[in-house]
Amino acid sequence: MVASLVGLLATAWVARQVGGRWAGLTAMLLLTLSPIYLQYSRISVAELLTLAPTTLALGCSIRRRGGGNISWLLAGSVLFRYQSLD
Q1: pLDDT by residue (tens digit) across 31-61?
Q2: Which residues contact 70 (CB under 8 A, 6 or more apart)?
Q3: Beta carbons of 47 and 40 less than 8 angstroms apart
Q4: Cβ(49)–Cβ(86) below 8 Å
């Protein structure tokens, strides 16, 4: 359940970085209303458990590209490595 909430917030964060505030809210709303996401969050399938670190890694990469310091790139690399351990 925690992984699904982190994945939901990470999706909103990435969409907000790319498209602004309304894009973040829309992405979070669409993912919240997705029946597949709700079903997978209840049974904790492996795909859902890798969604959160993958989306966070993408967000860190976008943040670095937008002018962030090198620590965003390092955090993205660690998160990407974590999701590929499954």
Answers
A1: 999 888 888 777 767 777 788 888 999 999 9
A2: 64
A3: yes
A4: yes
- Look up the pTM and report it: 0.83
- C-alpha distances (whole Å) from 3 to each of 18, 22, 80 are 22, 23, 15
Task: Tell me the two tokens of residue 28.
Answer: 């979070």
Tokens for 73? 């790139």
Give the separation between CA 63 and CA 41, rounded to whole angstroms.
27
Q: Which DSSP state fits 20?
A: -
Residue spans of the domains in the chain: they are 2-83
The Cα–Cα gap between 34 and 22 comes to: 18
